[in-house]
């Protein structure tokens, strides 16, 4: 369960790329599953992935070392959910920009 993430950093330390994707994905997934988290879901995915880039964490290549090191057993499946939310958010943002450009 993504809500079990304690933010210990074991996933980042175990990742050969120093990616914070499992931690970030756990937070995005946990908050995105809550009904009250829905209005901010796409904006949250954009902001958190952007911040991860600013902090210069590495990119996830799905080695799975993070999942093995996680003391709470959070699955890398959460990374797929984060990537989906992020891609939908980027697409929505681009569509909104295109509509504003034509209006």
Topology:
Blueprint: H1 10-14, H2 21-33, H3 41-54, H4 65-69, H5 77-102
Helix pairs in contact: 2-3, 2-5, 3-5
Can you characterise this structure?
The chain is mainly alpha-helical. The chain has five helices and no strands. Helix 2 packs antiparallel against helix 3, helix 2 packs across helix 5 and helix 3 packs across helix 5. It is globular. The mean pLDDT is 93.
Query: What gyration radius follows from the Cα positions, in whole Å?
Result: 15 Å
Count of helical regions: 5
- What is the average of the pLDDT values? 93
Task: Write down the overall geometry.
Answer: globular
Largest sheet: none
What's the helical proportion of residues? Answer: 55-70%
Poorly predicted runs: none
Give the tags.
single chain, 5 helices, mainly alpha, 103 residues
Summarize the structure.
By secondary structure, the chain is an all-alpha fold. Helix content is 61%, strand content 0%.
């Amino acid at each position: 369960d993504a809500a079990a993430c304690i933010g210990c950093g074991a996933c980042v330390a175990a990742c050969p790329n120093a990616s914070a994707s499992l931690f970030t994905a756990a937070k995005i997934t946990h908050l995105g599953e809550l009904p009250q988290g829905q209005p901010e879901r796409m904006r949250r995915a954009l902001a958190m992935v952007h911040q991860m880039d600013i902090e210069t964490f590495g990119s996830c290549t799905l080695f799975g070392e993070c999942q093995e090191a996680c003391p709470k057993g959070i699955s890398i499946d959460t990374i797929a959910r984060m990537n989906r939310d992020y891609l939908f958010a980027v697409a929505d943002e681009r569509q909104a920009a295109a509509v504003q450009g034509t209006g």
